[in-house]
């Protein structure tokens, strides 16, 4: 029987609290029974983050940072990204085993040649990462599931081109927003799925596809088990997952209470006891 995935929490869920007082935020998460977190601002003082994690009995088995693009948009301007080696060093500094790129922009999923170039970059990164004992992967949103003339989504076309060492961190909420049958998707992806982003909410129209843009607060996300996703079936469809990562793009009310409620749902669905 596969091992139960380790429960983690994406720190983006409590980003305002991290910005205000990172040490107190990590202490609060540890108090909720977490022993793992997933950092998102990986290049922001990784040594200090590693020390803070250790103080609170936490580790970071996975971490997110962009490495599949030359630059990213930040604060209304283009910001160049550091070399992959620097990002891998930061991942190693916080003790991560898996480095995940959180998003390749939507315009690079509309053309199969661009998808192939993304696959090439992921495969090259996997080779480099393997040399320092790390794995790399990709985290989806909704726009990757645009379907080509052959009826295959850009996302699954990407997967077909990947080195077996590349892992997938499937954001089940965004896949559902893209109107995927998520349990069926996970079954097709099989053992490539090594982490899940577990979140829930109403199945809103894809905010990346409309003129209004992406407003996290407008998504109406709720704690796991309280929305429209069949999360029990989704979790069961990923038997090779190593990590269940609780995440909110925007948490309702007290984000710590929302994170705790999601964690309780996941523990119950996985048949494991709570903290104590």
UniProtKB/TrEMBL annotation:
It comes from the Bacteria. This is Sugar phosphate isomerase/epimerase. Residues 27-237 form the Xylose isomerase-like TIM barrel domain. Pfam families: AP_endonuc_2. It comes from Cellulomonas hominis. SUPFAM superfamilies: Xylose isomerase-like (SSF51658). The keyword Signal does not apply. Transmembrane segments: none annotated. GO terms for molecular function: isomerase activity. The keyword Phosphoprotein does not apply. Keywords: Carbohydrate metabolism, Isomerase.
């Amino acid at each position: 029987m596969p091992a139960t995935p380790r429960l983690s929490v994406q720190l983006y869920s409590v980003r305002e609290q991290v910005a205000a007082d990172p040490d107190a935020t990590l202490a609060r998460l540890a108090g909720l029974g977490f022993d793992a977190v997933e950092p998102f601002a990986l290049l922001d003082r990784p040594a200090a983050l590693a020390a803070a994690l250790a103080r609170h009995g936490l580790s970071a088995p996975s971490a997110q940072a962009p490495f599949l693009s030359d630059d990213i948009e930040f604060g209304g301007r283009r910001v160049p990204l550091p070399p992959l080696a620097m990002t891998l060093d930061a991942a190693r500094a916080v003790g991560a085993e898996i480095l995940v790129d959180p998003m390749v922009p939507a315009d690079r999923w509309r053309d199969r040649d661009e998808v192939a170039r993304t696959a090439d970059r992921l495969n090259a990164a996997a080779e480099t990462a393997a040399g320092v004992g790390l794995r790399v992967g990709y985290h989806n949103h909704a726009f990757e599931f645009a379907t080509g003339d052959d009826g295959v989504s850009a996302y699954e076309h990407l997967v077909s081109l990947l080195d077996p060492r590349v892992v997938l961190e499937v954001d089940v909420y965004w896949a559902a927003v893209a109107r995927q049958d998520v349990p069926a998707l996970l079954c097709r992806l099989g053992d490539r799925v090594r982490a899940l982003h577990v979140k829930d909410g109403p199945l809103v129209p894809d905010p990346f596809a409309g003129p209004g843009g992406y407003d996290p607060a407008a998504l109406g996300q709720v704690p796991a088990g309280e929305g429209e996703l069949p999360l029990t079936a989704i979790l069961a469809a990923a038997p090779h997952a190593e990590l269940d990562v609780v995440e909110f793009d925007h948490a309702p009310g007290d984000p710590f209470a929302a994170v705790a409620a999601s964690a309780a749902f996941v523990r119950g669905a996985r048949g494991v006891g709570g903290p104590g």
